Predict the 3D structure of the following.
Amino acid sequence: MADFLGMMKQAAQLQSKMQAMQEELGSLEVEGISGGGLVAVRMTAKMEVKGIKIDPSLLKPDEAEILEDLLVTAHGDARRKAEAAMQEKMQAITGKLGLPPGFGFG
């Protein structure tokens, strides 16, 4: 019975920590860059795009395809950084609770 109560307490702690982490991920921002800094995408760790910066040298009609490719690359870079930030936060939470690595998280 004590083990069950301990597990319930641990589950409640995990739920509380997860809620706090979700709030923190919404405010944590990363920036993906491509083209040597010509294009940057800023997004939250919850994958919400917050801003895009484009160097004026790319704003030429005949450069549209290059710009499109750079935007896709910068977004991918930002997404990878956001996913890494999310994994780091998850590991910090599960480690503090003494849960095994990868405990129920993808």
Notes: The domain at 28-96 is CATH 3.30.1310.10 (Ybab; Chain: A;). The mean pLDDT is 83.
